[in-house]
Structures are given as C-alpha cells and as structure tokens.
Amino acid sequence: MRNIVAFPLLLLAVILQSAVVSQVKLLSGYADLPLLVLGAWALQDRVKSAWHWAALGCIMLAFVSTMPWLVLVVGYFALVFIAQTLQRRVWQAPLLAMFSVTFIGTLFIHLLSFIVLRILGTPFVFADVIGLITLPSLLLNMLFSIPIYAFMRDLARWVYPSEEYE
Amino acid sequence: MNSRSLQTTIVFLVIGGILALALGGFFGTASRQFSSVLVEFQTWVSTRYRGIQDFVTAPRDIISLRARNAKLEADVSQLQAQVIGLQQRVSQTDILAALVDFSRSSPENTYKAAAVIGRDPSPFLHYIIINRGSNSDIRRGMPVVTNQGLVGRVDAVIADAARVQLITDPASVINVHLQNAETDAMLSGSVTGDVSLDMISQDASVEPGDIILTSGLGGGYPSDLIIGQVVTMRTLEFELFQQATVQPAVDFTRLDIVLVITNFRPVDITPLVP
C-alpha cells in the first residue's frame, strides 16, 4: 500500500525536472531527475514495483514532454531492466551499481532520443549532441546520483519494512 | 568666638577665596589640570561602576535580550521575505508594463499574457510550458511573443496550460524577411539554442545588424514580428545560398511572462503541398 508514494514522488520529480532542473544547464545539457529516481528505485533489492514506477513515470513525462512516447517507454523500461540486472550482479557495491545504471541509462536514453528525433526529421549533428548535451548531462546525472540513491534507499526501507521483507 | 571656631572660619575663608579665584579664572592652568584629572578619575570610576552593574544585572538582561533578539530576528526574516516578494512584484510589474506598451504599439493584435511555468524535461527539445490553456482561448498554432520579439508558437494545449515550441528548437523552421536587404530567408534553431539563417539568395546584400522579421509566408506566423539581428554572414561562391548567424531579440534564458497572440489562426497549407 505504501507504494502509493510513487504517485506524489514521481509527480514531484517531473515537476522539479520541468521547473527547476531544466534551468540548471551545463552547456546545453541538464540532469534527468526521473531517470535517477527510477534507476535508484530499481536498484533497491527489496523493491518489487520498479516496473510499475517506470510505467507511471513514462505516463507523467509523456504528458509534459514533446519527446515521442516510444523513447520514453523504451528508455525507462530499459533503464529498469539494466538496474535490476546490475543489482543482481553487483549487489555488494550499490554505489558502483548506481553509477553504472546512471552512466548506461543516460547514454542509452540519449542515443535513443537522437535516433528517433533524427528519423522524425530533426536536423541534429551527432558531435554537437554528444559534446553539448550528452556529456554534460552525464556529468550532472553522476553528481546527482549519490544523494538520490541515498534518498531512495531510505524510502525503500520505509515502503518495504525489514520484517515484511524477511 | 573661641580660637577653634576662629581657626575654622579662617580655613573656610581661605578655601572659599581660593575657590572663588579659581572659578574667576585666576588659576587657569592649574585648575584645568586639576579638573582634567578629576574628569579622568570620574570617567574611570564611572566605567568600572557600569561594568560592575552590567555584570550584576547581566542574567536578567540576557534573558530579555535573547527574547528581544529572537523577536527581531523573526521580524527581520519576515521583512526579508516581504522584500523578496516585493522585488519579484516590481520585476513582474516592469515586465508587464513593457508588455502593455508593446501590445498598445500593435493594436491590430489581441494578446493574452501567460507566465512561463516550466520547460521540456528533455534537453534535446526547446519548449516551454505556460499557465494558460484552452480555458483562456489559447489554441494550437498561436504565435507567442514578448515585447522584445518572437518567442515561438503554441504546440499543444490543455485546459489550463499550453506547450510552446521556441524558435530555438532544432525542429523549428520559420520563413523570415530581411528588412534592409528586401529578401526572404529561412530561420532554424539548433541544439545549442542558437538560431541561424539559411536560404539567403546569393544576390542579396545582407549586412551584420540587419533586422529579421517574420515574413508571414506559409501561414504559420503573422508577418512583421521582430526576431533578431544578423550577426555574421557566411558567403561561399560555390554554394547556392548564403547563411548567417542571428542574435535573437528575446533572451530565452530569462523568459518569465509571454504574450499569446489570440486573434491569429495559422493556415494549414498541407492539402496544397503536392
């Protein structure tokens, strides 16, 4: 039942992303708060609802963003898949797993965005996208990943108390 | 009168006489030095007394001072909040005044003011979200401006909000007119937020500083909205067209309030495209 916290939390993440984080630019890139929240959530070993959260995040982002919904759905579901795969393999070093998820997830979503938008006719230059959007965004995502991971870990402990988990 | 009272009387008379002479200014230097010593001494005594008094009464004063300090700090923080609020209002009033002036200068258009409440979550796209929607008669395709110039056009609308595609968006293409050169061109955005001109005829003589206006061709925008100025030209003889970099009139990093031109309906020319 405590999973209902996904609604206000993801809503807050999307609102913050749109109103605040998107103004904090490094070159032309900025951090992706929903990506970090979903990645950190999916990395928690006791979490069973990461796919639901990803679906909810996609719906909320599709409502706000002009990005084609295909990019959002494929990107965020792939992120959860990567996180859960890594969580099983690198479970002893959660921060390393978080960094890996952030790194791979950011690159994957940006590459997907680039390909889909190019197919739809937006004239992007690959070198510009890498240098001005992807690398700065990656750096900011890495910086934000640590506090967000700590927050989501505490949240997971609250949503899935240890007795219930055991 | 016995000898003792006579002696006392004489002593008083002598001291009184000396005092009278001193007050009369006859012992100027001596009396000044004496008085300065007295003043210094009194100052020393007074200072020590105050110190002792402060020390003795300190506990009571600290409590009252702490209470007063807390109250003053609360007052200060409240006033600071008020100052920030008022500064924001002043800033908004300035922006609104400029927008009102602008709308008066173009009476042929009707405007609806809207606040910018967000941006697209993806860094690939340059869109803003405004707090007016179909409830305020905002429709898809309506141009959005500020008093400085063209911002973009409405891309999607819900009841109380709308999404606006900025002219800096990589997918944005606008037909423009170069006022001085009397020629048309095509303005497009980029991932960096810079805008550039393309499809300028090789015959056209375009100079840095030339004003760029919307041409109205294609029916997507009304004509004669200011976009910016030409910064640099790029002319290569072996290319079909000239290109130019543009300084937009609008500062897209500081968009707070915008105006939507509500009496303009874009023309859909899709059926005419072969």
Describe the structure.
The complex is a heterodimer of chains A (166) and B (274). Chain A has one domain. Helices cover 75% and strands 0% of the residues of chain A. Chain A has seven helices and no strands. Chain A has helices spanning 6-19, 33-43, 50-64, 69-89, 94-119, 126-159, 162-165. In chain A, helix 2 (33-43) packs across helix 6. The longest helix of chain A has 34 residues, at 126-159. The radius of gyration of chain A is 16 Å and the shape is globular. The model of chain A has no long low-confidence stretch (mean pLDDT 88). Chain B folds into two domains: 3-59; 111-263, Beta Barrel (Thrombin, subunit H), CATH 2.40.10. Chain B is 36% helix and 27% strand. Chain B contains two helices and twelve strands, in the order ααββββββββββββ. In chain B, the strands form two sheets. Chain B has a six-stranded antiparallel barrel. In chain B, 26% of the residues are buried. The model of chain B has no long low-confidence stretch (mean pLDDT 85).
Helix content of chain A: over 70%
Instruction: Give the strand content of chain A.
Output: under 5%
CATH-scheme architecture of the largest domain in chain B: Beta Barrel
Report the radius of gyration of chain B as a whole number of Å: 40 Å
Give the N-terminus to C-terminus distance of chain A in angstroms. 17 Å
Measured as a percent range, the helix fraction of chain B is 25-40%
CATH superfamily of the largest domain in chain B: Rod shape-determining protein MreC, domain 2
SS element count, helices of chain A: 7
- Shape descriptor of chain A: globular
**Regions with little confidence, pLDDT below 50 for 5+ residues of chain A:** none
Overall outline of chain B = elongated
Briefly note the structural class of the backbone of chain A: mainly alpha
Output the CATH class name of the largest domain in chain B: Mainly Beta
Number of domains of chain B: 2
Number of helices of chain B: 2
- Assembly state: heterodimer
The sequence of SSEs of chain A as H and E is HHHHHHH
